[in-house]
């Protein structure tokens, strides 16, 4: 069994219209929602071995809130002997297509069974539909889904093979919208 969590970055700032998309930071709501959702994730008691994030500022900031809450260490490469969870940066997740996301998932180390990816739409919404055969129009900012796969290796993850177990997002919680 493998468990994949997909977390879309928290709300980003458009305060500087000339700023490069890659460098956009979180806005006030994003800075409130990301630590809140990280805390909720921790309270769920979900197991997590590895986190992999897009290197874009807003995704990386979101992932770092989760890493801080979960006691994860940022590392340049996965180390199966290191204490878990670990946080890896993967530039391929920046505005990744479903094909790229599938490649990232298929390349995950089999020493991990519970992995969270941080990235962007529309690719993350597409991934929920692709893996979990779910009718989802939009994964909201800082939204998280859990998809379970009945597989022994990440290389086996494929279309419609996963089952959406739960999903959550900040607007479901009073005061976070």
Walk me through what this model shows.
The longest helix has 17 residues. α1 packs parallel to α2. The chain has 177 residues and is α/β, with parallel strands linked by helices. The model has no long low-confidence stretch (mean pLDDT 94). It is built from 4 helices and 7 strands, in the order βαβαββαβαββ. The radius of gyration is 15 Å and the shape is globular. The N and C termini lie far apart (34 Å). The protein has a 7-stranded mixed sheet, with helices on both faces.
Provide the descriptors you would attach to this structure in a database record.
globular, alpha/beta, 177 residues, 4 helices
Number of strands: 7
Shape: globular
CA-atom Rg in angstroms: 15 Å
Number of helices: 4
SS strand fraction: 15-25%
Order of strands across the biggest sheet? 3-4-2-5-1-6-7
Low-confidence stretches: none
Largest β-sheet summary: 7 strands, mixed
| Order of SSEs | EHEHEEHEHEE
The helix content is: 25-40%
Structural class: alpha/beta
């Amino acid at each position: 069994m493998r468990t994949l969590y997909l977390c879309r970055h928290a709300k980003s700032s458009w305060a500087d219209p000339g700023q490069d998309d890659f460098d956009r930071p979180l806005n006030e709501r994003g800075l409130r929602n990301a630590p809140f959702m990280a805390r909720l994730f921790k309270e769920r008691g979900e197991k997590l071995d590895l986190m992999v994030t897009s290197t874009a500022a807003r995704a990386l900031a979101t992932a770092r809130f989760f890493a801080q809450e979960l006691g994860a260490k940022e590392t340049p490469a996965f180390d199966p002997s290191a204490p878990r969870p670990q946080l890896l940066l993967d530039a391929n997740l920046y505005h990744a297509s479903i094909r790229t996301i599938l490649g990232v998932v298929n390349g995950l180390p089999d020493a991990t069974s519970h992995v969270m990816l941080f990235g962007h739409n529309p690719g993350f919404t597409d991934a929920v539909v692709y893996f979990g055969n779910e009718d989802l129009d939009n994964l909201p900012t800082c939204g998280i889904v859990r998809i379970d796969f009945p597989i022994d290796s990440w290389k086996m993850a494929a279309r419609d093979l996963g089952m959406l177990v739960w999903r959550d997002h900040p607007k479901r919680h009073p005061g976070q919208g």
